[in-house]
Amino acid sequence: MAFGVVGTCAAEPGTLRFAEALAAALVAGGVPRPAWTLWTLVHLTLGLVQEEQAAPGVAGLGDSLGGYPSLRAVADDLEPTAFDRRLDHGVALVLR
Q: Angle, to 10 degrees, between the axis of helix 83-95 and the axis of helix 34-54?
């Protein structure tokens, strides 16, 4: 099993130790399809980290959404400062 990080293969000892610990926790917790859950959590985390690194460091997204009322209504959760909350929410959804 190899772990890719943005187009690279990261099957290094530290990465595999982390994957082993996560897989063991998922198996011990009785999570269905633990390998798929592991991949989902890894991809969710890497995707959010990559998005956070590329995000502008300013808030105020809602100000540019005048013509998009539904996006404007949820703009607080789309702000660059919401990455921690988005990760917590995503992990909770995956583990349900």
A: 170
